[in-house]
Structure formats: C-alpha cells, structure tokens
Amino acid sequence: MNRRKALKRAGLLAGATVLTPSVFSLLQSCQNEPRLDWQPQFFTEKEATTVSDLLDMILPRTETPGALDVKADMFIDKVVAHTYDENGQENIRNQIAEFNSNCVENFGGDFSNLSKEKKVEVLKAAETSSGKFGRGVWGTGVGPQEPIGFYRAFKSMAIWAYTTSEEIGEKVLSYDPIPGGYEPCKPASEVGNKWSLG
Predict the structure, then answer these.
(1) Number of separate domains in the chain
(2) In this structure, is residue 2 part of a structural domain?
(3) Residue 7 forms part of a structural domain
(4) Quick check: is 154 in a domain?
(5) How far apart are CA 13 and CA 29, in angstroms?
(6) Which pTM was predicted?
(7) Measured between alpha carbons, how far is 92 from 136 in angstroms, rounded to an integer?
(8) Residue 59: which domain range?
(9) Which of the 8 DSSP states describes residue 141?
(10) Which helix (H) or strand (E) element contains residue 28?
(11) Environment class of 69 (CB within 10 Å of its CB; exposed 0-12, middle 13-18, buried 19+)
C-alpha cells in the first residue's frame, strides 16, 4: 500500500471515530420520525402519516394482524381518492387538520409526533367527546343522529376497511367459501366468530 492510500484510510478512520456519535444519534432520531412506505393517491404525506398512525393505535397488531398489516391506510386513501366528491375530500382534509391542531393545542404536537402514551390520551379524549352512532335497523338510522365528528367516523371507516380485507375475512373471521345449509334459530353461543362475507 502506498503512502497516499495509507493517509487516506487513516483520515477516514479518524473522521469516522469523530462522526460516529453524531451519526449514531442521527440514525436513532430517524427511527422515531413518522414516515410512509407507500405513495398516497389523495392524502398529503402528513395526512397519510396521521391516518396510518391513527389506524395503528385503533387496530394494532396483536395475535392477529393489525390495520397496517392489511394495508387499511392505503385502502382508505383509495376510497377517498376515488369515491368522495370534492366537498367530501375537502371535508376530510379539514377534519384531519383540525384533529392535528387539537393535538398540538392540548397534547403538545401533531398526533404522529406524540409518544404512545400521549396518543392513548388523545384517543381516550376523542372517545369521550365524539358523538355516538344512533340505533339502526338493517343499516338505516332510526331517530335523530347527533354529530359524530372526525374520530368516530374515522374509527368506523377503520373497522370497515379492516374487516373487509381479504386476510382478515379468510384468516380471522369465520369464513366458508361454500356455505352449507340454512340454520334458523341457532343459539349465539354456537355461532362463534362473526362471519366474513365470502
């Protein structure tokens, strides 16, 4: 090895020892930053990160897959992009912005930047302050419906996105691709899990 190469290597090694602590702290901070690993069709990156983090808190991975495992965030983005009219799209943008503003004002940061403990506090507060869905018969509301707000509407959409995913339908809910005979008046204790619509 010639002298020039030896000096270069020595310089790189010396630089590496000086930079290592700062590089290490930079890498550590990157692990805690919210980031997306998919390209939204409608949401901005900040909105999509909020949606993903909300889903992960509402339906986290346990012994069953979580909402992010079945790509419920991507599904909701596509639904909003392709089925909402301009007013609906503007409304959900405004609601996400208002939700984050509330998090900043009352909890110290955007939802995605909060600690897990603070996120739990946000969701508990949202559960208390959000309106409830009224009673319904066969999907039709009965009686007056109080305003439900962003959190309750989003939670409902999250559950819908999660339970209609193929993986949950086939591996978590009871699933029978070729259903058998009709059994009326079967005791609920014998039914077991809710059934997925094949």
Answers:
(1) 1
(2) no
(3) no
(4) yes
(5) 24
(6) 0.67
(7) 24
(8) 32-130+148-164
(9) E
(10) helix 3-32
(11) middle
